[in-house]
Amino acid sequence: MASVSATVLCTALIAGSTQAQNKKNVTTTSPTLNFYGLPGLIDMPSAEAMPSGQGAIGISHFAGQTRTSFSFQFSPRISATFRYIGIQDFNDLGFDTYRDRSFDFRYLIAKEGRIRPAITVGLQDFSGTGIYAGEYLVATKNFDRPLSLPGKFKVTAGLGWGRLGTLGSIGSPFGADRPVFTGGDTGGELSIDQLFRGPMAPFGGIEWQVNDRVGLKAEYSTDAYTPETSRGVFTQESRLNFGAEYQVNRGLRLGAYYLYGSEFGINAQLQFNPNRPVSPFALAGPRPVIVRPDRAVNPDAYDTTWADSERAPGVIRDAIAPELAEDGIQLEAVTISSIRAELRVSTGRFENQAIVVGRVARTMARILPPSVETFDIVLVNNGLAMSKVTVARTDIETLEFVPRASGALLPVTVIDSAEANPPANALIEEDLYPSLSWSIGPYVRTSFFDPDKPVRVDVGVSAIASYRFAPGWQLAGEVRHRLAGNIADSDRLSNSVLPRVRTNAVLYARGGDTTIENLYLAKQWKPSKNTYARVSMGYFEQMFGGVSSEVLWKPASSRLALGIEANYVMQRDFDQLFGFQDYDVATGHVSAYYNFGGGYYAQVDVGRYLAGDHGATFTLERQFANGWRVGGFFTMTNVSSEDFGEGSFDKGITLTIPTSWFTGRPSKQVVQQTIRPIQRDGGARLSVPGRLYEQVRGGHKSDLVADWGRVWE
């Protein structure tokens, strides 16, 4: 179980690690961030983009206003930001501290050239309550040593609407009508009809990076701060803002500012990149390939009479299995002939299946008799044969040390779907079943965005066990005991008009200290070469249990996958033991998955949700070669925004971070977190352990090709 605090910890570790590695040189190519957590000046945005894949956490404070933001450069041109704010003394709304959540979107129209500035269009708070709603078109140009001054200068100029058009307006070219923030809206609706409407105002500023560490900023702001000044939060006396910033290390930048002629502020900017791990990946080097003797010189070495022996498969298995086991690879089956061999293998150590292919191929080349020329490597995960990788032994022997060896090997390698079961003459590894695995360790459960206490946490001990008693069969469960926490202390109980399938989280937190998180029996198999199936029954998650079934069509060489899932579940008792409440629902989805390449994945799920509503969930995710995954999703159903309640519709951000990124050691374990502005009952989907697509996609062609650079590791 992960939390946002884990993300903060991770970025702090990055900062410390970077500082240790780079004490003298702190130069960074990342743009500096503004008070909204965006590339920018102080309050105003700039046109720069962070490096692709870069993430940033920003924390700023002035005049009783605190903004915490998470920004991510999803692609070279697209970035998004989630923001959580607190404003003290927002008097007429009845809060000691008014809290709000918002999303931003930015698109880099043009990259900076020799003469042309970078140009970006941005949407600020486009689906929240609208307190910060605004749009902008902005340009930024870099200059080195103008007028012989040291350092670098950035000049920014732009046009703002909404919040960014409330001071110094020069007209309303796209229409004057635009509602103002009142504080009574539940937020979450997309205000497409309001974009770029209302007064437009020019803003701008300059940033001077004096040296590697010190930077100065000045800007002309076009934000009148009407909601804040009208409620007495602070008094705005100037349109000019000034600041000084200090680059502590490559990841961390601190700043102090004088704003609006009346206030002092501070800002911390923490930037990190998945491609810069806390601990560099350390992997024991592979064994060298043993090249066969020349057939013309030693023809006897290629004698094939050994293949007629009934003992041959067992001898080969006994030689190969221990060597693979040292690499964390399990040999599951061997099929051998005089010229061809198939190994079925699985791993609990490597998430990257290309590494598995490379290590298995090396071992085969080291051990198999010289007459065996063709290697078939079948990648297996949890009993499911994902793909068959076919490579010629000659290519392994001749390409290992050529320039760009991975790229040379890929065109002569065939990646295709694997048969569900080994051939009839295969030698099956006898010690695979039954198999018991278990672990005991800490867990963390988080609850975010309660206005009374924005972050609530429960901590305790978790015991997890999995028993695989036959191919495809699994009995698994998790028991938790809470040691401390405050999620149950919340007095904000559900006010939902829908069936309360998610909003009773506080009642579940109060249900008991020792709980069954999940306990289920599952069977999964391949009905055909390109299809996968699963049936599960039991307690799937904290709130629901029942029966679940799934079928997935996914050829190993296809970017497209299609799936159908059908579930009948009942709501669990609040004590999360063995009982159920008087609520049951049939729920399920038809799903389409697509791999665009370059680490970009899309998913669309259409069907019925836990509250009985119908609709679709749209997900877009980016995956990095080291296993980091960052994505966003939203769900639209036939529940109206009024019935849904605060937030209007379900949406959020997902983070998946491999533990190897922290430790430097290969592992399939990850920490995961879903950040939702608010959890309501509309668009709520059942959580089922072991959904098929996530189990098999890493062993299919698109993912293998994307990771192929590591095949020789």
Notes on the structure:
- This protein is mainly beta and 713 residues long.
- Helices cover 12% and strands 43% of the residues.
- The longest helix is centred in the first third of the chain and has 18 residues, at 4-21.
Q: What would the keywords be for this entry?
A:
713 residues; mainly beta; twelve-stranded antiparallel β-barrel; 13-stranded antiparallel beta sheet; globular; single chain; disordered N terminus
State the gist of this model.
This protein has 713 residues and is mainly β. It has 11 helices and 31 strands.
Query: Strand arrangement, largest sheet?
Result: 19-20-21-22-23-24-25-26-27-28-29-30-31
Question: In percent, how much strand structure appears in the residues?
Answer: 35-45%
Count every helix, treating DSSP H or I runs of 4 or more residues as helices. Answer: 11
Amino- and carboxy-terminal Cα gap: 30 Å
State the major sheet.
Answer: 13 strands, antiparallel
